[in-house]
Design a protein that fits this description.
CATH superfamily: Gcn5-related N-acetyltransferase (GNAT)
Helix content: 25-40%
Mean pLDDT: 95
Number of domains: 1
Bound molecules: coenzyme A
Number of strands: 7
CATH topology: Aminopeptidase
Number of helices: 5
Order of helices and strands: EHHEEHEHEHEE
Shape: globular
Strand content: 25-35%
Length: about 170
């Protein structure tokens, strides 16, 4: 059974395994990882986890974990900022080997309930127009397509979802 857990230093090794699987150059959506984060050493990893925890007034992070493995990440940006109005409230990513098992859909549903608990009722999620997997995941979660918008990173599809109580 997968679980959504807050980032923790306890899973340093498992997180590094997942990170290696993503490989270089791939943006690990949902993890809040910045290029300058040094995550290989225990101290660097602890500093990164502490940074994520310190952002809790505007962003909440979870990892999708199963049998001690880190399979994905979800970020809920629950404070309205210019960045959120552009990038959306929720970002998510699942490790290549764990895709197409329904994990992103499962996690997204749980995080929609977390959005509601934080007062975000109309959730914005965006994805690149050529990201079929993401678009399908958002639509499956009830996302209503609004429009395609051009951004400096290329065109994106914008969706709205009503957050809901946890069921
Ligand atoms: C997008 C992503 C999170 C989907 O994760 P996942 O766990 O494989 O998704 P699910 O298994 O829950 O699938 C959800 C829906 O998308 C569909 N889907 C998933 N991957 C797909 C693909 N490559 N092509 C077409 N449809 C796909 C599934 O079939 C399912 O739809 P269905 O129920 O109608 O069959 C994953 O592909 C990923 O991490 N991609 C890279 C990061 C990324 O793009 N993040 C989103 C940024 S906005």
């Amino acid at each position: 059974m997968p679980q959504l857990i807050s980032p923790t230093t306890d899973l340093h090794g498992a997180w590094l395994d997942a990170h290696a699987e993503w490989g270089p150059g791939q943006h690990e959506d949902g993890f809040g990882l910045a290029p300058e984060d040094e995550v290989r050493s225990p101290a660097g990893f602890a500093a990164w986890v502490a940074r994520l925890d310190g952002e809790s007034d505007k962003t909440a992070y979870w990892w999708i974990v199963e049998d001690g493995r880190v399979l994905g990440g979800v970020a809920l940006r629950h404070k309205e900022t210019d960045y959120v109005r552009w990038a959306g409230h929720i970002g998510f990513g699942v490790c290549p080997s764990a895709r197409r098992r329904g994990l992103a859909s499962w996690a997204l549903n749980l995080v929609l309930a977390e959005a509601r608990a934080r007062g975000v009722t109309q959730v914005l999620i965006v994805c690149a127009t050529d990201n079929t997997a993401s678009a399908r995941t958002i639509e499956r979660a009830g996302g209503v397509f609004e429009e395609v918008r051009d951004t400096e990173h290329g065109p994106v599809r914008r969706y709205r979802l009503c957050s809901r109580e946890e069921t």
